[in-house]
Structure formats: structure tokens, C-alpha cells
Design a protein that fits this description.
single chain, mainly beta, four-stranded antiparallel β-sheet, globular
Length: 208
């Protein structure tokens, strides 16, 4: 009798453990999202030695859309500048308040080869500079002063932590409207971003 009771208890325990494991696996991870954004307009006023101003164009990775929200944005664009919703303002006119915990870094590679976030490299905007540095050769682009041309640097991938702690990676393809293969600044309008991005919607997952 004792042997039968012991076998019954062991069987019951195994069954409960199996059910528990099954329950743990009932919530699958959300699929990683790959998207393309075209002609995101990032106007600015000033420049060329004059004070820069103008509203930033805010972007939310979760919705894949621009937004005018004061809080629900991850990154924002103005001219060649890209800011994150984390840290503090550089102090330029019309910068939005940082209300989130976003951060960023730039790495070398391709969208396919960058498969994991290096969380130790993430930095936020600061009073001394943006997480994505500005200036030719410092961040995502080169500036040709003869042709007045902004060209994305091949092999530069921007990695972001979103305001809510998820992750995304971005490859900027063009700074000109409709992404011409050989932009001509005399005819092609600038400050129109085209970029690919991959968004990891699962909390605390750092793999793409």
C-alpha cells in the first residue's frame, strides 16, 4: 500500500511539474519587427554659423510612426542631429524635454551582422553632446563641403534603447527626398531621412 501511495505521489508531482513547465511556455515572444521609413522630414532653422532652432521630428519605434507627443517618443531628428528621449538637453533652442530612459551608440557592421546589443556602450544625451555625435565623420554621416553633400557612412549602425527599455537598430540610407542614388544638392531636397530599422518588442531581450 505504501509503495502504491509513493508511486501515486511521484506521478502527481511529475504531472504538476509538467503542467507548470507547459504554462511557462504558453506566452511566446513577439516577433522582431523590420521596417523601412522614407522621407521623414527633419527641418531646422539657422545653421552655417547662425544659431540653430526649430522643432524636432519625434519618432516612436513601437508604433513605427512620427509623433507630436511630449513623452511617447524614442528618437527625434532636426537637420543632421539625432537625439534620444533620455538624458538631458544640449541646450539648443527648441529641444524637447527628455522624459524617458532612452540611450544609444554607434557600431560598425551591417544590419545582418549586428545581432546583439552591447548594453555597456549605451549612453544618453548630455549637456556636453548627444549620444549620437554631430559633425562630419563623428557620427553617421560625412559632409562634402565642395558639393555641400551629406552622405551616410556605410557600415555605421545606430543602436538604441527605447524610452521603455526595448531595443532597436537603425541604418540611415539617405538624407535627401526620395533617396536618390546620386543626390544633387542643386535639385534634391535635403533633411528627408530614409532608414531601415529593426525593433525588438520583447522587454529585456537584447538579441535581434
Amino acid at each position: 500500500m505504501k509503495t502504491i501511495q509513493l508511486v501515486t505521489l511521484v506521478t502527481l508531482f511529475i504531472g504538476l511539474a509538467s503542467c507548470s513547465n507547459d504554462d511557462d511556455n504558453t506566452t511566446p515572444l513577439l516577433e522582431v519587427e523590420s521596417q523601412n521609413v522614407t522621407n521623414l522630414y527633419a527641418p531646422q532653422e539657422g545653421g552655417q554659423g547662425q544659431p540653430i532652432s526649430g522643432q524636432f521630428t519625434k519618432f516612436d519605434f513601437e508604433t513605427g510612426q512620427t509623433t507630436t507627443s511630449e513623452t511617447d517618443w524614442d528618437i527625434a531628428f532636426r537637420g543632421t542631429s539625432i537625439i534620444v528621449n533620455g538624458g538631458v538637453s544640449l541646450g539648443t533652442t527648441d529641444e524637447p524635454e527628455r522624459t524617458g530612459n532612452a540611450a544609444a551608440y554607434i557600431t560598425n557592421g551591417t544590419m545582418a551582422s549586428i545581432t546583439e546589443v552591447n548594453t555597456a556602450s549605451l549612453v544618453q544625451d548630455a549637456a556636453t553632446g548627444y549620444a549620437i555625435p554631430s559633425g562630419s565623420g563623428n557620427g553617421w554621416y560625412l559632409y562634402d563641403s565642395q558639393a555641400f553633400l551629406i552622405t551616410p557612412i556605410a557600415g555605421k549602425i545606430l543602436v538604441f534603447k527605447t524610452r521603455n527599455g526595448n531595443y532597436a537598430k537603425v541604418e540611415i540610407l539617405s538624407y535627401y527626398k526620395d533617396a536618390p542614388s546620386n543626390p544633387d544638392t542643386t535639385v534634391d531636397e535635403s533633411r528627408y531621412f530614409t532608414f531601415n530599422y529593426v525593433y525588438q518588442p520583447n522587454e529585456s531581450v537584447t538579441a535581434f
